[in-house]
Amino acid sequence: MLILKTRNELFDFIQYINAKNLSLGFVPTMGALHDGHLSLFKRAIEDNQYTIGSIFVNPTQFDNQNDLLKYPRTVEDDINKLKSVGCDAVYLPGVEDLYPNGLECDTIAMNGLDLVMEGEFRPGHFQGMATVVKRLLLQINPTRAYFGEKDFQQLQIIRHMVRALKLPVEIVGMPIIRESSGLAMSSRNMRLTPDFKKKSIFIYQSLLKAKELSSHYTPQKVVSKIEKMYLNTDLKLEYFTIVNEETLLTANTFDDCKNYRAFIAVFAGDIRLIDNLQIR
Length: 280
Description:
Layout: E1 2-4, H1 7-19, E2 24-29, H2 35-47, E3 50-55, H3 65-70, H4 75-85, E4 89-91, H5 95-98, H6 118-121, H7 125-140, E5 144-148, H8 152-165, E6 170-174, H9 194-199, H10 201-213, H11 219-229, E7 236-244, E8 260-268, E9 271-278
Parallel strand pairs: 1-4, 2-3, 2-5, 3-4, 5-6
Antiparallel strand pairs: 7-8, 8-9
């Protein structure tokens, strides 16, 4: 596996791919790889003649600097995992490779998709995320890029950005990979205490309960019932909402012709976890 540490090294690799007119799959990550990430790489390897990943902890998408400092960095272990699944190359850019003019975000219109849920509670997060994804896509010029549905709001924003900017890449969304307990796999899980890891199983259980309740109640009633369930737990609910999957707007009724998804953000101690589930 090639380890590309600068933009110039990446350029040489991309030139080789383009000269041979080969398909290229791309998986952008912030490292601390788990089986959820590896499922994206395995799909990319199946779909394309070459696959490249990136590992870059993007400073502009952290509204909390402590969160940025504490974000797990396990590059050596990540490289070994990528080798084990057969990835062809990994790009390890420095800040200067993606932000040559300093840590400034591009202005990217998101059609309001960035104003709700994570956008409301993490101001600036999506501008930072979209900036780095756009710059990586322009540098790598992949045939397809792969993103997990655990960050479903992010996925919808990236799809919108790619359409709006007419970037020649297919965006592929992949299902959430869960631990045997149902807890959505996340790099943050490794920071959970054993006690909170056990208690966090309740997050997925509450999403399944919302799906069950959606057959009998309005979206607002479902939200109210789920919020009450968290009053008797050690988990701090930041938000629980049900939205139209396409627009990400709050659902007032359930229309059989549309898809709806429940989104949740919870603090397990000082670790913030998110999850989502299509409920109708």
